Amino acid sequence: MAAVVPPAPATEALSPFETGPGTPAGRYLRSFWQPVKLSQDLREGQAQPIAVMGEKFTLYRGAGGKPVVTQSGCAHRQTLLSVGHVEGDSIRCMFHGWKFGSDGQCQEAPGQSPRLVERTRIRTYPACEAYGLIFVYFGEGEPPRFPDIEAFSKKHGKDMMSALVLDCGTYRRNCNYYVNVENALDLAHVPYTHRISSDPTITEVGFSPEVAFVRDITVERFDFGVRAIEVIESAPPTVSTVMLPNAMHLIVGQRDGYLEQVAWRVPIDDESHLSFQIAAMHTDEEGKIRYQEYQARKSELVAKYPSTELCAEQVLRGEKTLLDFADHPDLVNMEDHVAQMGMQFITDRGRENLAQSDKAVVQLRRMFMSRLADFVSGAPAESGW
Ligand code: FES
Ligand SMILES: [Fe+2]
């Protein structure tokens, strides 16, 4: 895919954190398919606003079932198209009724000349659906090859798509996406951040207690990513891979087998992001039944609490502790929320004291910056999927 690349900025101006329109990392991330919504969260005939990398868009599902992504506002006076009406595969603005096809071409503009209709268009973006997620390509030119998760999983000795339990999910976290990208390689956080969720005497589901020790990790670099491997004596190793620029693949022990997860951290803006994940539980029939029974009770447990984000904010304000949420089905996630949202001065790296256990994170920073520099110098954006 040949991206349109403006002149390279000075390397020292490069940063993974800023992803707004025109920023180096923003253009880099826009060169890959990015998930924006769970398929199940967009009904046929429904339109919704979405925010990605500091920009707003309209997402809708037409009568043919295909997701369509357009610029957020109407060509006429920029009212949000997401509050309009889906008609067949088109969308009609709720303000004065201008109607646009899924290719962005204006089809009707009541009371206006046919010439105006003909010459009016809105911008649309390639969208597709896979693994229960809706993906969009926000870059210039032709979209890149779509990631083949199934082949990637098989290449690593697993078969994610035929796992007994396969699920997808999403959450919002109010911190820069890159903090969460790096977190995938920070295996030393697990025993402490997830102290409660890896203790079976306190929690019903969660990590296997075997993961709750700090061990040395092996770091592997490959063309478009970094992998951290932690060998655990009595359980399968934890293997966590970051696929540049913002995706990850993880295999980690759970109490009922092990979890294989693929996730993308997609910036909403520079202070918040959405994570979209596909999760496979490699377990046995009994583990599957326990999982399903727990899922049936999960909505009841979730209903006891405000959103995971708000619970984490209560902990950060000192009003609650994580132990107050010991039966929260999203406790693992909440623990990560608290650790990552609690980080301060993230973009001022002079305040950090990186140590031995951060060696995979350091490798990732080097590789991210080097691939970003290549990209702004005109190299094509390539992924390892
Ligand atoms: S703003 Fe959309 S039709 Fe007028
Ligand atoms: Fe974590």
UniProtKB/TrEMBL annotation:
TM region(s), chain numbering: none
UniProt superkingdom: Bacteria
Domain Rieske, chain residue ranges per copy: 33-136
Keywords, in A-Z order: 2Fe-2S, Iron, Iron-sulfur, Metal-binding, Oxidoreductase
InterPro entries in alphabetical order: Cholesterol_7-desaturase, Rieske_2Fe-2S, Rieske_2Fe-2S_sf
Pfam families assigned to the protein according to its UniProt record, in alphabetical order: Rieske
Annotated region (Disordered), positions in chain: 1-22
Entry annotated with the keyword Metal-binding: yes
Official protein name in the record: Rieske 2Fe-2S domain-containing protein
Organism of derivation: Amycolatopsis pigmentata
